[in-house]
Amino acid sequence: MSQMIRVTLPDGSAREVVRGTTPAQIAADIGPGLAKAALAARIDGELRDIMRPLDQDTNLALVTSRDEADALELVRHDFAHILAEAVQNLFPGTQITFGPSTGDGFYYDFAPTAEHGPFRDEELPLIEAEMRRLIAADLPLTREVWERDKLIAKWAAEGETFKAEWAAELPANEELTVYRSGDGWMDMCRGPHLASTGKLDPAAFKLTRVSGAYWRGDQKNAQLSRIYGTGWLNKKQLAEHLVRLEEAAKRDHRKLGQEMDLFHLQAEAHGSVFWHPKGYRIWRELEAYMRRAIDGAGYREVKTPQVMDARQWEQSGHWGKYRENMFVIPDEVPNVDDEGPIVSDDAEWMALKPMNCPAHVLIFRQGMKSYRDLPLRLYENGCCHRNEPHGALHGLMRVRQFTQDDAHIFCREDQIVSEVQAFCALADRIYKEFGFTYSIKLALRPEKRFGTEEMWDMAETELRAAVVAAGLNTPEYGWEELPGEGAFYAPKLEWHLTDAIGRTWQVGTIQSDRVLPERLDASYIAEDGERHRPVMLHRAIFGSYERFIGILIEHFAGKLPVWLAPVQAVVATIVSDADDYARDATAQLAAAGIRVETDLRNEKINYKVREHSLAKVPHLLVVGKREADEGTVAIRTLGQEGQRIMPLAEAIALLKGEAMPPDLRDR
Hints:
eight-stranded mixed β-sheet, five-stranded mixed β-sheet, 34% helix, globular
């Protein structure tokens, strides 16, 4: 075997180097600046340690902080390992499990000793200090390959039962690697890592909180302590992120939902929302808005059952792929006696629907369909249930009961591109009317899927073609393809909204599905007189009403556009002499279609202003004796300084214009 190998760099130049040379040595050969800046290497596209020797001809790209996505992944992975080492240094006997990088940082799950119990937020500064000591020590991070039996034995001997269990269950053909920090501490990991702890900026991370977790995410397993942190390339990035977190905390929809009296959640209905009158008013306005949109786009609204026989879910494929997330129900009268099981072993099973698509296929199948009937666009504000783990629930953003603005378009092959293009235009209009910008992604076939390769090739090609036809496959729209992230039955286009503080939310989607019509035997009579399968386009714009309302609350920091605000105006009195005038003004505003309340309480006006500002009421109309005598109001608008004095009729006209939904203003 030759001792020399050929290394090709991104600019096309090539170098002959001795087998076993590291990317770090090649970087040093190119220049001292690159040697200092290089963090890792891409070897034939795979991200690897910069100190890992090269053993064959390869394409090499050196990774620096300018390659931000790769660099952040590396440093966050390292911060997680250093967190684990710091915790074990400070709290001997703590077992380590695993700790990945996340979208803005990292976490690590620990099994604390029984004597110590779960970790606490107050301990985070101590752990941070130990992490900084390890970073300052500039300990080399070294990759080692271990024999499976020896590694399992080592973990078991050291009392690392979770690591031993994990190592034993990894695929037999998988190479087991560990990374050492200096000469001692190690963790099992595929890598890659930086060359040493000193490559990290000690001022670029912060531990944020502690929470409970379960080993492997299963509530039946041991409970662990999860320590979260945020990690960045430098102090400036961390500071900017902490400002964003502070702003996000102010906008938290759960906090604002309470202050604005919109909704609440409680243990008696885990993951389901109790909508208060003001919160449900937002829902109703959104629902009316969406109905106008879908009516104008040629959809037909339907309503389908909440509970369907398990056999239907088996036939659709959801029972096998999705059953763990479904609520199942026995199809029999429960035993009402004190003795014996509530449900017999002979019970047939039904399930609360986790999605609407199989039911829409059943509607399509009622009566013979002709090619002239297509496209058939069926829409439903469909209430669905998914059995999400308690620990995954999060306000309105992740719930167990939710309502989708769901539709399925049954169309011919020759109609797919035009239908998807029309949907793109509809989604674009709606998102822009709410003030969002967005990016669009194509999620491609996952590893486990139904359908033939030909089906997937056609579906992916059609979605690409529709995006091109809509003019959305450009950098302006953040066009990107996401390998392996499609649904098990179809690829999908995804709309990722950007909110007021730069966060992204995956909301809308359209999927091109040939699998479900096949499995559920949907067909139409084509022009040739033969039965053909329709293509089924699954689509949503809000995604779910619950989550979209949560996003809106945070995007607008509770200061919703006037047309969406549950209370659009409050008429507040300064003195009781103005009470009758306030009542009359309220009646005139209400007659004009404005959602208005009256505040006649015997409180100082500054108190009333603060209270209604906290409730995010867009307009406060202040009236005293002078306003009553002159027929005027003093308007205070949320977020603006001072007030405007104007006749009541002029104020009504102003508010009436602002209260009109955006899709109705130009009619």
